[in-house]
Amino acid sequence: xxxxxxxxxxxxASDLDRCLASLSFADEIIVLDxxxxxxxxxxxxxHGAVVHQTEWxxxxxxxxxxxxxxxxxxxxxxxxxxxxxxxxxxxxxxxxDQPDEAAFMVNRLSRFLGKWIRHCGWHPEYVxxxxxxxxxxxxxxxxxxxxxxEGDVGRLDGLLRHYTYETMEQYIDKLNRYxxxxxxxxxxxxxxxxxxxxxxxAKVAFLRMWLVKGGILxxxxxxxxxxxxxFYVLSKYTKLWRMxxx
Length: 246
Prior knowledge:
By secondary structure, this protein is α/β, with parallel strands linked by helices. About 40% of the residues lie in helices and about 25% in strands. About 40% of the residues are buried.
């Protein structure tokens, strides 16, 4: 099976070298950049990745545009802060040239404040990443995008490592942008909430992650993640409440 790897980037040089090094088995690597000002282009050049430029279209449309630039039928969509493990690479390489499945899910293990998070509802986390672009593709959601497949979806052995947030600064930098996009999506879909509803949802989110999903077992980093995720929910629904009042 010939595989194209597709990545979207914006000032991703700090993570990209690790990501691209794990894709040496891919037949081509397509990077769709949004005007990075760091060393993203230089990192891509070292690994033989082909770089294209585009304006930001939202996560779903931008990732699909990267897929459309690939020349192979099978595409591995991967984020710049992710890494294919040797076990996952082996599972991909043993696939037949024409699998019956339209796509495959992989188990992603994410990192927060220097710890691999194995609870909190973060793991196991199966995400669809390898797919036949004739039978699958990204939806047009601007945030929390997903791959829609027309056919069976299998699972691959091995892990996809996700170097999510090593610092709170990284989490906070993304929180404002992601919650604004999510609130706008809900607002356009006709959803609304109250301030009390935002508070209740945030408390429920913490209790679900910390107690029901076992975040307490991930120690202090897990507890911080549960609290931070609760604030994410609070921010998202407070913004939705505000949009309904304008």
